[in-house]
Automatic annotation (TrEMBL), chains A, B:
Residues 46-225 form the FAD-binding PCMH-type domain. It holds the Pfam family FAD-oxidase_C. It comes from Brachybacterium tyrofermentans. PROSITE patterns: FAD_PCMH. It comes from the Bacteria. The keyword Transcription does not apply. This is FAD-binding oxidoreductase.
Length: 466, 466
């Protein structure tokens, strides 16, 4: 065994499955696992890859699995709902896929401590549903909220639409319960907002994409539902002006809960997909949500700010219309389907948004690729889409080189502007090849040593994230 | 050299000082360092301890110092302003004290990116002063804000009064520039709110009390100054009822910017110290700051909530009166001086505040010690004071055993209630003996391995925090 490669397993997959079945019960180890358990939404199942799927019923079952994995030297791919967008849960031949989907207990909702204690397999939206009757909510809301799990959100430090105001997943997690590579259970963090005892293992584990330990439960912050909400729609003649509108908000006293930028390409895609007429002749749009006290004052300040930045602004008083607009926004990922397509996820300092948008058009022309953008503009996080309308979508085929080249240009441009190669999706296996562009050799070496400190056998999600 | 103890230096202190003087200039290495540079506000200078004091002018000077330290195996104690309350910057014989106080450049204030880039030695209040003309502010505000540095705040993940709403220091730091043990410079993090590339070294470094690397600069978030502020004063017949008032706020939709609880002992101390008559016959007080939009609505909701919880509530419309109240609150640390005294810093789940307050009185009686409390109640962080009015203050003497025993009882009680031994001051050297009460052997072993990953020679702030 070298220090950087996992040792080969000492037990055959069939023996391993038999042992796990004996210890965890028949139902926890399917005889013929669905190949989909080896994939996520970015990476297809590896052709011919065989793996053992384990779906423990409880934390104890996760510990048993990890004990067996470490005693046999078998690599483990922890998995939430497989909704990841960077291949973080992709399996390869010979591994254990450790699915947390049955750890779905919401152990506790405490309104006085303003926390909930949830198991890793809880679907994020299910937590919101459980909280709503109490008048509280869990803030992180990645677009995948209806299908992704709290554990997966923690593994990727998932973002979403409301991060500029409410923070990313990291800001909502106070404590973790994780199973270490050797099967031991470790509790980190605290149940109060403050706590500074020792190194902050909680924060290091968040976003580590299952490479350091397996998250099995978390103590998360909850907030009172806002006393009011208001949607504001601002139409701009160009994407550059919409970006300038984002800057105008930064210089104003208003801080929206969400500030989504949709460019002409995205608006056209949504219209084609839904039959709505959201584009309405405009070239870019900011769809904004305000919330909290003084909603009229907030809306007035925002309207003044955006009008001054050249927008045609409308405060949406009708809640049904507002909900319809947010639905259209959420449809932007599905819209534009049917053709070969790649969605990216860079973040830049938000003052550079206009430059990214301008350069993206240049990149599209250079490679003969259609581009479109939807951005969480308030935190500088863009999801540019690259597509080739003439090439039909084929999940089994590689993407056209022109698309991959265009994405590569985008990533390099984002880095040149002081940005990052992943705003919220994570590195997984899909973005490994860009890591050295962002991280220095010192940083990467240090990260490998931290990995060694947690997982000396390199069993946990090998080949991902780091 | 063992793996847990630093090797002894291979060069005498005088030779080391001479080499540093040659490389950094005479003025960077004082011939006779003030003994105070070996202490902080919790720990006195070690009698007879000799150390080399280095005050580099720039980042390069910090790198030079660390290179020489690592090549000679000399331990280094990084130091901000020495305002720490847990001995984190205490020096022992034979070390280099690396003071960051001359790294005072505010490199950048960017209103569009909503960030500032500041060097570690910038006094936190000086950053606020620089930001104010732009209509923005840096949120973390430990009580030491006028004397402590950004670097020191980052090293301890400092808290303060506004954390329940604005977060602790951690939530305001996006990126770091640190000097590693070997003298190399490492940049971590990003300039956008989002960024998930690799393990989050920024977050691991925050709160690591100078044991992993030397923070030399940081990119921090800034926020628009609130459009309005309002102070609300709620008087309660007992500390238990004030704690219940905190719970009532948690169940309401209002989230104050600050919620300070002062018990009868603290109110009496403040009155005796300042001549104010803040106690006014009451047994406990919540001093609350609201800010943001809809301030009248917020105040109305808060008044209703606290009146319902049995308080006599007054909204302070007069700004001078409000400022006077906050000044009295800030005086609580100085108040009660002149007698032997210890200020503690535990945090508990905030639903347990009433229990801590009740049990604290029992502890006081048990040990014949006077107790008082001021608490950042909104985040469950209490600063109980233990004093013996009959015993005069003597910085050179050990504290009476009764005080130390009472503090020990408090810490154990806080842990029993699901709390932590330090809410915001850090562990330093002063709280080492309590670490095993909170952290499991697995956690401590893991933290030592992370330390090894950063600092294999164990040169950085040995014997602190971990």
């Amino acid at each position: 065994m070298t220090s950087t490669e996992p040792s080969g397993p000492t037990t055959s997959l069939d023996e391993l499955a038999a042992q796990l079945r004996e210890q965890l019960g028949e139902d926890a180890v399917p005889w013929v696992p669905d190949a989909g358990y080896g994939a996520d939404r970015a990476v297809r199942p590896e052709a011919g890859a065989r793996f053992v799927l384990v779906l423990p019923r409880d934390v104890d079952g996760v510990q048993t699995t990890m004990r067996l994995a470490s005693s046999t030297g078998t690599p483990v791919v922890p998995r939430g709902a497989g909704s990841g967008l960077s291949g973080g849960a992709a399996a390869r031949d010979g591994v254990i896929v450790l699915g947390l989907e049955r750890l779905t207990t919401i152990r506790e909702i405490d309104l006085l401590d303003e926390i909930a204690v949830v198991e890793a397999g809880v679907i994020t939206a299910d937590l919101s549903t459980a909280l709503a009757p109490h008048g509280v909510f869990y803030a992180p809301d990645p677009a995948s909220v209806a299908i992704s799990t709290i554990g997966g959100n923690i593994a990727t430090n998932a973002g979403g639409l409301h991060c500029a105001k409410y923070g990313v997943t990291r800001e909502s997690v106070l404590a973790l319960e994780v199973v270490l590579a050797d099967g031991n259970l470790l509790r980190t963090g605290h149940r109060s907002i403050k706590g500074v005892t020792g190194l902050d293992l909680t924060q290091l584990l968040i976003g580590s994409e299952g490479t350091l330990a397996v998250v099995v439960a978390a103590t998360v912050r909850i907030h009172p539902l806002p006393v009011a909400r208001r949607t504001v729609l601002a139409r701009f003649p160009s994407a550059a002006q919409a970006a300038a509108g984002v800057g105008a908000i930064s210089r104003s006293p208003v801080r929206p809960a969400a500030t989504e930028l949709l460019d002409a390409g995205t608006l056209a895609d949504i219209d084609a997909y839904t039959g709505a007429r959201i584009a309405d002749g405009d070239n870019a749009m900011l769809l904004i949500e305000l919330d909290g006290y003084g909603i009229e004052e907030q809306a007035a300040d925002l309207v003044r700010t955006l009008t001054g930045a050249g927008a045609a602004v409308r405060v949406i008083e009708d809640e049904t219309e507002a909900e319809k607009l947010w639905e259209l926004r959420r449809s932007s990922r599905a819209a534009g389907g049917g053709r070969a397509r790649l969605g990216e996820d860079v973040a830049v300092p938000k003052s550079r948004l206009a430059e990214v948008l301008a350069e993206l058009e240049v990149i599209g022309r250079r490679h003969g690729v259609r581009t479109s953008v939807v951005a969480h503009a308030g935190d500088g996080n863009l999801h540019p889409g690259f597509s080739m309308p003439g090439v039909p979508e084929d999940p089994a085929a590689e993407l056209p080189a022109a698309i991959l080249d265009a994405a590569d240009d985008l990533v390099r441009m984002a880095l040149d502007l002081g940005g990052t190669i992943s705003g919220e999706h994570g590195i997984g296996s899909a973005k490994q090849h860009w890591l050295d562009l962002e991280l220095s050799p010192d940083s990467r070496a240090l990260q490998r040593r931290l990995k060694d400190a947690f997982d000396p056998q390199h069993l946990l999600n090998p080949g991902k994230a780091l």
